[in-house]
Structures are given as structure tokens and as C-alpha cells.
Write a structure and sequence with these properties.
1-phosphatidylinositol-4-phosphate 5-kinase activity, alpha+beta, 6-stranded antiparallel sheet, Phosphatidylinositol Phosphate Kinase Iibeta, Chain: A, domain 2, single chain, PInositol-4-P-4/5-kinase_C_sf, Phosphatidylinositol Phosphate Kinase II Beta
């Protein structure tokens, strides 16, 4: 079994296995079986034993606020094959090692969920120790929040050779897939969905700005934030709701020192023009009406908001809010960039600026990509 398959198996088993109240899998009752299991877990390179962090909090969000039943959630992490030939790793599809953090990404076979590794200690410790409680409380009270819905948080349950050698990530988040429905649209022969991962581009990015990017490969530069050279067409009511959510969501992030988050934007071309584009999109299966995308019922930014001109459906979510200024690695990076600025005057990076300043630029970017069509 390869690395990607072994990691996928460990994730799927952590989600679907019977757990105790604290999220740890039940141990074998037989002493010899327990010893062998511990021995195997310790010397595993890729298939690490994972457990759920704060499972009751995430279960409450899923059941009570997102109307996602336990069985339906677990089914997404079951292999689609029937019979004895079904393998746990087949429930997840690898979509590669992406980004500068070295994160691994998987999607469930039904495309409803994404699993992203969080390999940096500064990031997973921030989410666990600082943000998880306010995030859970906030998401319970803000059903229209643009913050991505995180359904589970997994971590290594014990010592492992694979973790010590850095061969496999020790932490993963399970989140909704804002691109849910794309594969079905492709099968119907519709135009491919467009997506952008947007951050303020006015910051200093060494990969882009030093020597005009000549010292960095195109592959590396392609992992930087995208640029959206167009407009989201919205009605006044849609725009006001969008901006209100952005203001409230980013206020929570700034209050907890988060920076460098991004707006993930999806634009879907409505396959057939109609007087009611939302109805047309729903008939085509573009707008999901079931958990985890709903509730609230459509239209929302996770199910799709129809442009007044009837041409597109837009989705959006705020992602990657795990970089906090008070953690050790961000502090170290801030010192380095401050020294660099003293020599070159290049300016701050998105990961070294203040939370309030990043929020201000982020909101300005979001407002700049919206065009309001008055009634």
C-alpha cells in the first residue's frame, strides 16, 4: 500500500470506527491483541492511528445546526465497492500534495467532504487551543457564516515512527466541499466550474517580487493566491448580505489573531437561461439542498447565489484561517521579514501583518470584486 492510500485508510477508519466519548477508539480487550496493535501503530510509517479531537463539539454542529445525520456522514467515508473487496482507503480520493505547507488533500468518493492535513504545529495547535471553542460557538449561532464548515478534527493518538520521521501528517481537518456537484456537472457535459483562491495581492510575496520572480519556478508561483479579473454580479440585497457576513466572520478571526485566510470563490455558468436562474440551476442539480451544504435552505453562499443577470451561480467560503500571529513560527517569520524590510523596504507579507490590517485589506479586496446591479 502506497503513502497516499495508507493515509487515506487511517483517516477513513478514524471517522467510521466506533469511538468513546473522548474520541479515542476502543482498545482490544485481549492483552496480546492490544500489544500487537500498539506495536503496529508505533512502527507504521504512513498509516497512523488517529483519533477525533473534541468529537462532541463537532457532532453537535453536524447534528443540531447543519442537520447532518451521523449515518449519512459516516457513509461518505465508506468505500463505494460492495462485499469483501471494499477497502477503507477507496473511500477517499487523493487530490495531491498542495501548497507551501505540504498539506495533503483528499475528497470523499461522493464529493461531499474534503480532508486537508494541517502539518504545521503552529496551525493545528492554534485551532485546537485558541480558535476551536469560539469557532464552534460562532458557527452554531451564524448559519449563514462564510467560514468553511469543519466537521471533524483528527490527530495522532500516540507515538509513531512515521510521524517522527515526517512521513505522514499527524493532524487533519474534515470540511465541506464547496465544489460539490462539479463532477456531476462534468458528466452532464456542462462547462467546467471556475474557482479562485483569493487573498490581497498588495502584500510582499518573495516568490513573486524578488527579481521579478525569476528565482522561483512557475510551479511555485502558481501556488500563490489567484487574481480575479472580473466582477461578481449581485443585487443590492445579495451584496449587503455578503458584506455583512464578511464583516462578522473576519471580526471573529481578527479577535483571535488570525491572518492569511482566503476567499474561495466559485463561478458556475447556468447551463440554460431562464427567468429564474436559481430554479434553472436547481433543476440542473447545481444547487444542493441537503446537508452538509444546507441548511440554511438555498440560496446561500455554500449552495449558490444566482446573479441577477441569470448567467452565473456563485459560491464562496473563507478558508485557511489557522495562521495566528502569536504562535512561535509566525513570530519568527515576522522578525525575519521585519529585518528584511529594514534593508529593502519591501513591506509586510500577508503572514506577518497585523490581524486588523489584514482584515481591512481582505474586506477591501472582497468589496472590489463585487458589482451591484440596482433593481
Amino acid at each position: 500500500m502506497g503513502r497516499q492510500e495508507a493515509i487515506a485508510r487511517s483517516i477513513a477508519q478514524a471517522i467510521t470506527s466506533t469511538s468513546t466519548a473522548n474520541g479515542a477508539s476502543k482498545r482490544p480487550k485481549n492483552l496480546l491483541a492490544m500489544i500487537l496493535a500498539l506495536f503496529s501503530a508505533f512502527f507504521s510509517f504512513y498509516q497512523l492511528a488517529l483519533r477525533k479531537i473534541r468529537p462532541a463539539d463537532f457532532a453537535s454542529l453536524r447534528r443540531n445546526h447543519w442537520q447532518l445525520a451521523d449515518d449519512a456522514y459516516a457513509d461518505s467515508f465508506q468505500p463505494s465497492a460492495d462485499g469483501e473487496d471494499a477497502k477503507a482507503e477507496e473511500a477517499l480520493k487523493s487530490i495531491g500534495d498542495m501548497g507551501f505547507s505540504g498539506s495533503t488533500f483528499y475528497s470523499t468518493a461522493d464529493q461531499k467532504f474534503l480532508v486537508k492535513s494541517v502539518p504545521r504545529h503552529s496551525e493545528h495547535s492554534f485551532f485546537r487551543d485558541d480558535l476551536l471553542t469560539p469557532y464552534a460557538e460562532y458557527m452554531a449561532n451564524h448559519p449563514r457564516s462564510l467560514l468553511v464548515r469543519i466537521c471533524d478534527f483528527l490527530c495522532l493518538s500516540g507515538a509513531s515512527v512515521g510521524r517522527a520521521l515526517g512521513l505522514a501528517p499527524s493532524h487533519h481537518i474534515v470540511m465541506e466541499n464547496i465544489m460539490y456537484g462539479r463532477e456531476q456537472a462534468k458528466k452532464r457535459g456542462e462547462a467546467d466550474w471556475e474557482d479562485w483562491d483569493l487573498k490581497p495581492t498588495s502584500y510582499f510575496y518573495p516568490e513573486r517580487d524578488i527579481a521579478d520572480g525569476a528565482l522561483t519556478s512557475e510551479a511555485t508561483k502558481s501556488q500563490l493566491a489567484d487574481e480575479f479579473h472580473d466582477k461578481i454580479i449581485l443585487s443590492r440585497e445579495q451584496a449587503d448580505q455578503f458584506f455583512d457576513s464578511l464583516e462578522t466572520d473576519t471580526k471573529l478571526l481578527a479577535e483571535h489573531n488570525a491572518v492569511d485566510y482566503s476567499l474561495f470563490l466559485v463561478r458556475i455558468k447556468v447551463p440554460q437561461q431562464a427567468s429564474d436562474p436559481s430554479s434553472s440551476a436547481a433543476d440542473a442539480g447545481i444547487v444542493p439542498t441537503e446537508p452538509p451544504s444546507a441548511p440554511p435552505a438555498p440560496p446561500s453562499w455554500r449552495t449558490g447565489v444566482a446573479s441577477p443577470d441569470g448567467k452565473h451561480i456563485f459560491r464562496a467560503a473563507i478558508l485557511d484561517f489557522f495562521w495566528a500571529k502569536h504562535k512561535i513560527q509566525p513570530i519568527f517569520m515576522t522578525v525575519l521579514i521585519t529585518l528584511w524590510n529594514a534593508i529593502t523596504g519591501s513591506g509586510h507579507m500577508s503572514i506577518t501583518t497585523t490581524p486588523d490590517e489584514y482584515r481591512e485589506r481582505f474586506l477591501k479586496m472582497c468589496r472590489g470584486i463585487v458589482e451591484v446591479r440596482e433593481d
